[in-house]
Design goal:
The relative contact order is 0.10. By secondary structure, the protein is an alpha/beta fold. Helix content is 24%, strand content 32%. The strands form four sheets. The chain has an eight-stranded mixed β-sheet with strand order 6-21-22-20-19-16-17-18, sandwiched between helices.
Amino acid sequence: MTRVGNEIELTVDDVAHGGWCVGRLDDQVVFVRHALPGERVRVRVTEQTTRFLRGEAVEVLTASPDRVEAPCVFSGPGMCGGCDWQHASLDSQRRMKAKVVTDQLSRIAGIDREVVVEELPGTPDGLGWRTRVRFSVDEDGNAGLRRHRSHDIEPVDKCLIAHPGVTELGVTEVKWENIRDVEAVASTTRADRAIVVTPTTAKLGELPELKASSAVLRRFKGGRVQSVRGRKGVREDVAGREYRVGAGGFWQVHPAAGETLSAAVIEGLEPKPGETALDLYCGAGLFTGALAEAVGAEGRVMGVENGEHAVRDAQYNLKDLPQVRVERADVAKQMREWADVRADVVTLDPPRAGAGVEVVRKVAGMKPRRIAYVSCDPATLARDLAEFGRSGYRLVGLRAFDAFPMTHHVEMVAVLEPVKLARRHREAAEAELAEQDA
């Protein structure tokens, strides 16, 4: 008998990966949105499988002390799916994210480690940070955001987590005829703005006039992006260096993320002048540039990126650094070609799917003294850390950052060392502590 559409009452026990909380109905697991651990809620069932149910808390019978009034009127059951935790205090959001990371590391990688999710500067209320927002357009030409696990569009007049530079464009205030979606992009350090539109027809028609000036680009089927008017992207400044970033490419969406993550990678790797560094999935060259500054003119940095436009951006951004070489290639394929290369330090920042077994093994085979793995997905990070463990590397440092407030996402920087080296460092640290105690 199907329960979809029916309402059930239960107590939520814990938080789960993906913005869910978990409860039980008799012996069946129920994943619930818009709830918090410890709450008694009435849940409308939205999905049913043989193993579990999914649903939304439509009424809170006993509230958690961490519950707050959602600042966004479009957040709630059946509405916008862009945020997961608008109903939770920011402190509790970070605690829940830390719990998820801890659980994934333990369950998937067998790593028991206490995790603290750090607040990023500049967004004390958790709003106004997202510098890239992709709006979907409904049949009437209204821009909105997708509902959770749905193709349905929730029309919105404003997205509260959008950066002011995005909001000032006024994407939701105009009609978008024959347009499927509009991605709005704003620089955090310059006045640069851009929109990337995906038309529903072969020919791009006339576009509405926005409230603020911006470059215009078109996205074709398959993801290719073509400039229509103005710059091809925006400029960002990180640690005194300017980066050109394609409007349709990848860049950290929180204003403080670029600086914070670059510093965390350099702190974790401790690259030395004259060393060889490898930056995999290097994008527009954010970490490549930081590594190049650290190893100096006598060192070398090799970046690998598969995206054509990202490679062009990286090569342009780092053209003043002769010690840098950026290759356009699939990372796994390039690693096979570099079988004899030796690197002192390696950075990986793969997509959400993770690096995978082959890349992990190839990186470990280079025998770097340290590896920094940047990830936004605790599950795939844990999977790859387990493979690094089987390849002779051990997790020696982990920092997690709240780079996506109000959502379930979290950015992490994991640092690994060869097991023997990590053991020596641990024994040295323990000896130093013992000497201090004596």
